[in-house]
Specification:
Helix content is 31%, strand content 27%. The protein has twelve helices and 18 strands. The chain folds into two domains: 199 residues, Quinone Oxidoreductase, Chain A, domain 1 (Alpha-Beta Complex), CATH 3.90.180; 123 residues, Rossmann fold (3-Layer(aba) Sandwich), CATH 3.40.50. The strands form four sheets. Strands 3, 5, 6, 9, 10, 17 and 18 form a seven-stranded mixed sheet that branches. A six-stranded parallel sheet has the order 13-12-11-14-15-16, sandwiched between helices. Strand 15, helix 10 and strand 16 form a beta-alpha-beta unit. By secondary structure, it is of the alpha/beta class.
Length: 338
């Protein structure tokens, strides 16, 4: 089979690999689509360290079970995955905080994932509830968004909201946040430098969109009489983005730095100024089992519009071009398919 292999920092290749061999309790998933995540791009750049190359990346996937050696899984079931395979028994796992488990393995991070024609789901992952089965009514173009939507739902639950929110970035994650914010009844502003992405944000319900120019930022501050109640940064949190977040939030407001950051990036604050500004600083990442189940239910209910998000498809054989396309932010969501 063909697979996209992360060999080391700055080195990605398309390889011919054997179809995974199953042991007792495993299942084999035939991949339909797999989305390129910002974390994969960051790993390739060397900005994050929670990957163990060489590994087949890919964790935002949709697929079908084509071989099962697990008594509870049937051939033909449509599936995606919770890509964090944790121990299932530690206090963190018992409290739905699997991401803090000290014995975690990540699909597409430590073990081979979905940028391939087939993927093995190990018995341990199935036994701990990490194989997510869905009805046939969910198209594979929507199913691949179940995991990223679960991340956004987890962040929405953790973040402090009042009346207004500014979402920094209108990539796939920012556009999911846009829809969730509108569902929550919030006045929703989106700040995005690319016009084509601002247009999609408006299509999906953003009350106003802005570019990143000083004039646009000042306009937003005037419109909100000093700043929004909450900022969610859903883009790479480099220095200019961090500064922008503080520019558009009101005193006493909440800032959630959801997006990843370049290696070594820091937030420095004058503690006295921070004290009197009263900002609430936080970061959300990943998902919980609860948020993934909520995401699954929203997909079943057709509660969100995913159609404008999936814009660019590449065969696995063109995997390097797919990564280049995603890194250049040419569309919204770039996916690979066998």
């Amino acid at each position: 089979m063909k697979a996209i292999v992360f060999e080391k920092i700055q080195q990605l290749s398309v390889q011919e690999k054997p179809i995974p061999t199953l042991t007792s309790g495993d299942v084999l998933i035939q991949i339909e689509l797999c989305g390129i995540c910002a974390s994969d791009l960051a790993a390739l750049r060397g900005d994050v360290s929670d990957y163990a190359p060489p590994v087949v990346m890919g964790h935002e996937l949709s697929g079908v079970v084509v071989e099962s050696r697990h008594p509870d899984v049937k051939i033909g079931e449509r599936v995606t995955v919770n890509p964090m395979l944790s121990c299932g028994t530690c206090p963190e796992c018992q409290n739905d905080l699997d991401k803090y488990c000290s014995n975690i393995e990540g699909i597409g991070h430590d073990i081979d994932g979905g940028y391939a024609e087939y993927m093995r789901m190990p018995k341990h992952g199935i036994d701990t509830g990490k194989l997510i089965r869905v009805p046939d009514s969910i198209p594979h173009e929507e199913l691949l968004f179940l995991e990223p939507l679960g991340c956004c739902l987890n962040a929405m639950r953790e973040t402090l909201f009042k009346d207004s929110v500014a979402i920094l970035g209108a990539g796939p994650i920012g556009l999911l946040f846009t829809q969730l914010a509108k569902r929550a009844g919030l006045t929703t502003y989106v700040i995005e430098p690319f016009p084509h992405r601002r247009q999609v944000a408006e299509t999906l319900g953003a009350d106003r969109t802005f570019d990143t120019s000083p004039e646009a930022v000042e306009h937003l501050r005037d419109l909100t009489r000093g700043g929004v109640d909450t900022v969610i940064s859903s883009t790479t949190n480099k220095g200019s983005v961090i500064a922008l977040a503080f520019e558009v939030v009101r005193r006493g407001g909440c800032l959630n730095f959801f997006g990843l950051a370049p290696e070594g990036e820091e937030i420095r604050v004058n503690l006295e100024e921070f004290h009197y500004a009263g900002h609430k600083l936080m970061a959300s990442w990943a998902f919980s089992r609860t948020s993934l189940e909520e995401s699954r239910q929203l997909l079943i209910e057709k509660a969100l519009n995913f159609e404008p998000l999936l814009t660019d498809r590449f065969p696995i054989a063109q995997g390097l071009a797919a990564f280049d396309n995603a890194a250049a932010q040419r569309g919204i969501k770039t996916v690979v398919q066998p």
